[in-house]
Amino acid sequence: MSEQQNLEDILFYSLERSIKSYRQFAQQQLIKKGFEITIDQWLLLKTVHENPGQTQNQIAQTIFKDFASVTRMVELLVERKYIFRNPHPTDRRRFHLKLSEVAVKLLDNMQLVIENNRRIALKNISEQQILQFQQVLDVIYNNCTA
Q: Is the pTM of this model over 0.90?
């Protein structure tokens, strides 16, 4: 029988702790720079910008959120005039989402902060280590989705 590990010794616990820490840090940096948007809202806007025509279900999968959460975010972003929601031409249950010019400018203005957040988080980690880590994460993902 194997001995139980402490939480701090479990890879996935460390990974989750790191992700949560990064998200909190990144959110604080956005607030400090005067951006009134959450990391999740930024992810949604970025996804719509990079993948025009995606359904809300596809967006939810891309940003790892449930459909209800994405629906609430879309409602808020429509109210704030960041997204236009138009009826889908062939399916009345779906909408076509499009970023407003204000949202495109917001994404552009946020880019330096986002890049700086990543730079700080990845400080003292070599390109080789980052590449290796990405490969390990891809293997874990493939193991779990196979």
A: no
